[in-house]
Amino acid sequence: MVEENKKKKKEPKRKPKYKTWYCVKWLIKKTLKWDKKMLVFSLLLIPIAVALYALDMYIPPIILEKLQTSISFNTVALTIVVLVAAQYGFRMIKTVMDNYSSKSMLRNGNVNYQMLLEKQYSEDSHNFLFESIRKLYDRAFKVLKGLNGGSAINVIVDFKNVVVNVICFFLFGTIINMLSPWITLLLLVGSLATFFMGRWKASRDYCDKDQRDANDKKMQYMYWTMPRQYKNGKDIRVFSLLDYIESTWNKNLRENIRLLHVIQNRWSIVQVVSFLIALIRDGLAYYFLINGAVDGTITPSQFVLYFSAISQMSGFIGGILGYFSSLHDNVLLTSDFIECIEEERGKFNHGEGIPVPKDRPVSLELRNVTFKYPDSDKNVLEHIDLKIEAGEKISLVGVNGAGKTTIVKLLCGLCWPDEGEVLIDGHSVFEYNRDELYTLFSLVPQEYTVLPTSVAENIALCDKSEIDEERLKDCIDEVGLTEKITSLGNGIDTGMIKKFDVNAVEFSGGEMQRLLLARSLYRKASVLVLDEPTAALDPIAENEVYKKYNEYAAGKTSVFISHRLASTRFCDKIYLLDDAKIIEAGTHDELMQQNGKYAEMFNVQARYYREGGEIND
Predict the structure, then answer these.
(1) Contact yes or no for 422/429 (Cβ under 8 A)
(2) Alpha-carbon span 564 to 200, nearest angstrom
(3) Alpha-carbon distance 434 to 14, whole Å?
(4) Per residue in 336-359, pLDDT tens?
């Protein structure tokens, strides 16, 4: 544990990329676009807030002065009524404006969240291979929580409060200077000392933020996510994992407590030092005031005025520094947010590109392609040359980790190579607009997304009003899901995620693969990519898919990935990957005649499926 802590201390500390004024200007610009009234209200709140502070300070001495000098009840009563009415009037206006600001904060927070989601989904998929990008998005989403929904209002409100406190500092400081300028200096020095202590704590807390976030994710998983994954219960019981889980939990808990103690210790130091500074600062200030009252140089009404001014002055200096500190903290978080959504990090073309081929198969090519995942020191693919002619049906086979799925990602524009080129119809994938490029592909992936909506919309991937119902029905029939969907209470309108709809359906693995296949057929794309499409199907259902494969791939370029070599015989060409390279290529019969690696793998698999279930040694 000690060595781990030493290593963590040696890690470079993260610094915000954008400075305070850049973030303030960016937020004001965005807020002007989203909600101009909020900025107007913020400006109007400045004189209102100053007026309220002034009334709070002047009302007691004015009333005391009237009571000492006036003999008329009406004069005193009228003075009190006017002053209190003004005070309540300003307070009511401020309350209304604050309520509007709260609504704006929620509204703008939703805009920020939507903006971040749009950026995340438009980000090139390749970028999420990097841990630094994943961490950047994690921090950006945490900012939305840290800024009360991600609204820019927090920063703007802090900025407004700094201005209010600066104005009041000069207004009240002028009054205190009439008593002694040394009091103002004393209050200022004491408040500055407290401020810098707070900044020291905030700066240290910010530097440790990534470390705390990483531990929080572990705690969240161990405390909340894993216990609610009830399917894991059988493994925990059968393999007696409870002791290991408790050990891991306690280890993470100790680290969490250590990190909390670091923050709490800093907070305790700041609180103790701030208390001592305030005691000395205010004690000396009140000494000047009481001494003047005792020797008769200050009248009772002046004493009340000065006393109020000194009390308020400490608050204004603390307010200037405190709100500026809060502004600084929020700007640090906002810098992460801006960095996430404003910067372009991808290589794919998001602007105008060359026309994408329509309604016809296309050729696909990897030319001298090398690729390595960022967290690996070994190439997944090395100098791969692969040409798939338009309308050709090819199969990629090989052991796990051979690079089959990686080739698919490269062909579909989900990743870019470290070396070499990816071509579609002879043009680099970077020449096409990325989103238009994606329309060429219909993919049945191993990892898929289910939307919190109906079965129909999960297949068509569009709003119900835009679905071609006849085509949808044909696709469902084609993959053999008609009977299953007909049996559902709401048919194709049945929901698919129980967290959103208690009456939703839960498909089995095989049924889900059929639905994904129906989704790919509905799309009518130029390229059909099937990545282990029959892995969860029983042998009979698997055989049905193989028989219909030519129908599915008609008029398309097709890429089929499978571990089961018997399923590749219907392809025009088979490519065997091993050790980051294509080591064999040809039809099934050609590869069997070569009697190489493919033939060896095929024979090993085939001997377990002999007629009658016999195993031949």
Answers:
(1) yes
(2) 62
(3) 33
(4) 888 888 888 888 998 899 999 888
Residues 433 and 514 in one domain: no
Residue at token pair 């945490």: 142
Whose CA is closest to 426, among 492, 494, 354?
Answer: 354
Nearest to 518 by CA among 471, 467, 479, 470: 479
CATH number of 65's domain: 1.20.1560.10
Per residue, what are the HEC states of 537-563? Answer: CCHHHHHHHHHHHHHHCCCCEEEEECC
Q: At what angle do helices 539-552 and 509-523 cross, to 10 degrees?
A: 0
Q: What domain range is 505 assigned to?
A: 447-524
**Angle, CA of 409, 577 and 126, to the nearest 5°:** 20
Lookup: tokens for 386: 């692969």
Q: What is the DSSP track for 594-616?
A: HTSHHHHHHHHHHGGG-GGG---
Residue type, 190: G
Shared domain for 223 and 151, answered yes or no, is: yes
**Each residue's pLDDT tens digit, 49-76:** 888 888 877 778 777 777 777 667 777 7
Q: Is the pLDDT of residue 450 over 70?
A: yes
Q: How confident is the model at residue 389 (pLDDT cuts 50, 70, 90)?
A: very high
Residue 338 contacts residue 115 (beta carbons within 8 Å): no
